[in-house]
Amino acid sequence: MTPRIASLVPSATETLVALGLGPCLVARTGFCIHPADAVKDVPKVGGTKDVNLPKLRRLAPTHVIVNVDENRRETAEALKAFVPEVIVTHPSRPEDNLALFEQLRAAFASQPGVNQRAAALSGEFSAALARCREQAWPGENVLYLIWRDPWMTAARDTYISTLLAETGWRTWPDVLGGEHGAGRYPTLTGDEAWLPGIDRVLLSSEPYRFGPAHIAEAQALCPQARVQLVDGELLSWWGVRGAAGLDYLRGLSDPSRCERAGA
Questions:
Q1: Phi and psi torsions of 8, nearest 5°
Q2: Cα separation of 230 and 171, whole Å?
Q3: Quick one: average pLDDT of 168-189?
Q4: DSSP, res 185
Q5: Residue 77 · residue 18 · CB < 8 Å
Q6: Of 41-45, 108-112, 134-138, 216-220, which gets the smallest average pLDDT?
Q7: Positive or negative, the Cα torsion across 182, 39, 62, 115?
Q8: Whose CA is closest to 238, among 6, 9, 11?
Q9: Cα distance between residue 12 and residue 97, in whole Å
Q10: Range list of β-strands (E), 136-243
Q11: How many CA atoms lie within 13 A of 25 on its CB side?
């Protein structure tokens, strides 16, 4: 039997396509935009936080992919009333990608090519992680901003922060956000005592689209820091993008590249 899959998570949608399951997708959120050619004709059922449940019910999915950070708990509970299998994902560390590939492989192992593609994704990710860990990195204090007005960042136990830690970058504030909830993405007042000690400010391209116009504002927040715009999809999307994210991070973190660029 061919599954009818609804993905309510952008990272999961992209990963399902990489596993060869694109033709099985019957629903996605408006934020599930990659890969564009594969998802353009898949019906949208709202956003990650405001899922159109009546529309999703009419599409009759056999499987729905949700995520602890991206989707509301009440949405996941409501899905259980009409979806045979709700698959809950929660990668919180880079190595959790390996468990994710296995979770999706096991769920859809009967579909042609899924087992082989999952093994390939695991191999690619493991190699990228090894490339990060075989190098000694100078430690830096980093502020990763995902929003402004108010400023928002990521707690140290989020996927973003643990990914950055692979190259020795310590994100601030020094707090843990727990398994779920708003505490995972703290709000800043702008007068925190640790801000002057930040070495680098990273302005993410998503969920807030930081651009060149915001650099001076961020620089005022941390006057001694190097401020740079970064690809938020590569640094926060898990799954199939995990390996590329690690390689991108290595490029950002390489001291010799900074020196050659005159930074």
A1: -105, 20
A2: 15
A3: 93
A4: S
A5: no
A6: 134-138
A7: negative
A8: 11
A9: 11
A10: 140-145, 169-171, 200-204, 226-230
A11: 32
Strands 63-67 and 5-7: parallel
Amino acid code (one letter) for 102: E
CATH topology of domain 1-90: Rossmann fold (3.40.50)
CA separation, residue 156 to residues 143, 172, 196 (Å)? 11, 7, 19
Tokens at 23, concatenated:
């033709």
Chain region(s) in the chain for CATH 3.40.50.1980: 1-90, 140-260
Tokens representing 259 are: 């020196």
What confidence tens digit (pLDDT) does each residue in 98-120 have?
999 999 999 999 999 999 999 99
Q: What kind and span of H or E run contains 144?
A: strand 140-145
Helix locations, the chain, DSSP H: 10-18, 36-39, 53-58, 73-79, 96-107, 114-133, 159-164, 215-221, 232-236, 242-253, 255-260
Structure confidence by residue, pLDDT tens digits, 40-71: 999 999 999 999 999 999 999 999 999 999 99
Residue 99 amino acid letter:
A
Residue 167 DSSP code: G
Neighbours of 30 (CB within 10 A): 12
Confidence tier at 1 by pLDDT (50, 70, 90): confident
Average of per-residue pLDDT across 203-215:
97
Q: At CA 70, angle to CA 80 and CA 204, rounded to 5?
A: 170
What integer pLDDT is reported at residue 180 of this predicted model? 82
Contact 201, 222 (CB under 8 A): yes
pLDDT of 182 strictly over 70: yes
pLDDT band at 255 (very low <50, low <70, confident <90, very high): low
Fold held by 140-260: Rossmann fold (3.40.50)
